[in-house]
Here is the input.
Amino acid sequence: MNRRTVVSRCVGMVRAFCVLLVAVAVAMPAVRAEEDFGDFSSATLTAKAWGAVGAGKLDTALVFTGKCRELYMEKALEQQASLDGFASDEEAPMLWALNDVGTCLFIEGQVYEQQKDSKKALAAYEQLASKLGYAQCWDPKGWFWKPAEAANKKLKELEFDAKLE
Amino acid sequence: MRSLSEAVTAAVVLLIAGVGAAAEAPSPGAIPVRIEGSPAEGFRLLRAGRPFRIQGVGGHQHLDVLVACGGNTIRTWDVDTLLRETDGVRLIDRAASLGLAVTVGIWLGHERHGFDYGDPQQLQQQRQAVTRAVEALRDHPAVLSWGLGNEMEGPTGSGDSEQIWQEINRLAGLIKSRDRAHPVMTVVANINPAKVAAIRQHAPLVDILGVNAYAGATGVGQQLRQLGWQKPYCITEYGLPGPWETEQTAWNAPVEPTSRQKAGMYNAATREILADPACLGGYAFLWGQKQEATASWFGMFLPTGEKTITVDAVTDAWTDRWPDDRAPVLRDVEMPLAGKRLAAGTTLRVVARSTDPEGEPLSYAWEVRRESSDRKTGGDAERRPEVVPGCIVSADDRGVATIRLPREPGSYRLFVTVRDGHGSGNIDNWPFQVGSGSR
Here is the structure.
């Protein structure tokens, strides 16, 4: 094989390799830069989720809510099971996992609504209403609001919307 | 009894009741209304001895539509509206002829409008006006309850003025001394711990707490119970979040829910209100149309009188059925200008396609108006911005239009009104801003 043939084949192989690299890069999902989860506490994750929603970064909000659920859902369910009604104002802050995971589920419902994904919104609200009914979230106006009650209202809105189809 | 003052007040109530029973028995015309129940079991109105759940609206127009949709009560904010004649018939008489009950709104002065609850002369004039109103209407069969004031404690702030609530108590006592047949409700702008505590302490003669609540309407009952409210309540204005409590654009223009979103909100809120045993019912707002941030935010009817999908929504909640002719339903929206800052003169294709449940052909009317610069608080009257000419390049009958943005920098809204030609329609709108660069 003469030199020209060898060079030509090498160029061809390099060209093919580059094409392959590009094809793989296009086919692979974009790697998300790791979000800053702070101290990984449920309160921090929930606050970051709210902040992301406020900034219009809906996918980012879902990353935070997803992390909160991943880390604390088991504890949230445990705290829910320990109750037979809403905790008093004094006791409510101690049910941190229940409150924060419940709030995160509500946030997810809100995000999916904004993204026009009714199915996922319904799923988030239903999970909240059926599994974490005693979650509470402090309202600066001076009381705890109930994410599950808000979810039930949202469920009714979405159920009515389905009637319009 | 928790205190001496409460014991004294209770004695006064009994005295008024005794005097009232002797001197002011209900006349043959009045339909007596009383409250039955307890905090534990819930409350209900009995009207002529029969349970009456308020499926009401705030407003005085389209009463025949209200009846057809299953509504049974209207609420006004003043007495003059009820006494005003149209075609020789007073509104309250027309309501009665349609079988509607009426919560008679008795307007009370607001400090933000200059009323002084420390001025004896103003108070005396107000007391006389309340007395005249009660004496004029106490015998009317349509009267369900007295609506003593509307947000007179202030639409914002703590609303816990001892002076105001003591005066409300005095006025409630005045009403009860002249009318034994109807309960007294006072109407406030939402609730907070200080306000509810002040009402409990200083206005014990109030029978029903009416709460104007929008985004938080369905949480009111639970909050009242947490705050120790032991009497019935009503939601006296509700529907959708107000412009003060929704998402805002970067230039602080409130983002109005779509007509379709509003329908879900009205339906859910109505069902939740009727599901609370402590709640006597609610009054959807507004059974009519007004300019408040936009011309469409609260109106359940178009400015031209057609009912919107929110009317269908409350009909479904009240009756579990649709009205005879349904409003169009918003389906597809492509609104590249929504919430955006764009260059002057930009041309855009926009879509807001609706379908009609009965298959009727729809007409679309597009217009651009400036963002309102006449924003008020507390629902005070606002001027509607003028149409900006020359912005609608073309529009078809499928909800598609081509828009040319105004030349002048500023904040605007694109409105689309869709009508089915049979008495129903919707308005939707999207805020946008024109920057100083041009295209």
